[in-house]
Write a structure and sequence with these properties.
Elements (H helix, E strand, L loop, with lengths): L15 H12 L5 E5 L11 E5 L5 E2 L3 H14 L9 E4 L4 E4 H8 L2
Antiparallel strand pairs: 1-2, 1-4, 2-3, 4-5
Helix pairs in contact: 1-2
Length: 108
Amino acid sequence: MPAMPSGIPACPGTSRRHRLAAQLADIIPGAATIRVSLTDPAQVWPHPHTIVQDEAGRSMELGRTTSRVAARWILRVWPDEDWTRPHTFRLVDATLTCSDSVAAERGR
């Protein structure tokens, strides 16, 4: 766990993913889920892309910088995931699921 200059652990008792959820909730007020992929429709090559939704499932508009920062932070916390497929990060419980899997389960 990273320590502050005083040697006190930053956010004692919380995991990295929970700290990430708290940080993202601070910079994106009202966000419930963040869908991350490397297929930005505005780019030809792989590029971080996010779709943020509130609790009601409505999409939220983000600035380009905030969108990319959120995507990169999530990618760095889970570097071993298969990022060729989109994933959804739920802020309320700090869980990451493959978005394709969630859609398939809802269709059953």
